[in-house]
Amino acid sequence: MGASQTRTEDVFQELSDKTGFSLEQIRILHKRFRQLSGEEDTISKENLEKIQALDKNPIRNQIIEAFFDKRNQNDGEVGSSREIGFQQFVKVMCHFKPPTLKMTTEDKEAMRREKLRFLFNMHDTDNDGTITLDEYRKVVEELLSKSGAIGLEAAKAIADAAMLEVASINVPHMEPHEFYEGITFEHFEQILKGLEMESRMNIRFLDVDTSTMHCGKSQ
Question: What is the pTM of this model?
């Protein structure tokens, strides 16, 4: 084993320790990363835009942007990267792992909160801590208008009505003249409180089925 291969294995082991992916899973992710990047050390948004399985996804742009959003790379940074390396790629992929039977209630709750934060970041595009009407409207417009079943104006009306309903729930005593600034993360948690998403939030468009990628050793 050469020095370069030894360093690579050391990096893989470090990523395994940090993310809970097994070494085998890290190697699978690395192989797919190299395919996407064309054997380069980094991938760009353009690389992900070439994935055919994403073409018909209504939130295609949000998914791609999420990989380059520094908030999702668990490094305590903000902003967007033009390109990311393998370590950043794995840290983002970690958000799609399902829980395991061995996880404690506290661990599962922590995982759920991380997944919710990831989804919140996809909507909070300007990183101001709230999902504004404009941000929410863009997501709803893309989801509805791209389905071909509804027009853009109708999508806007639905987004506006949905935001008003959210406002009435989160700020029930808001006066008519008051302006609802937007959905905070705490509001977001409450809105999705009854939704089971820990095991459903997985990703297959990279030809990597994260629904089978559990923490630790493969199961």
Answer: 0.75
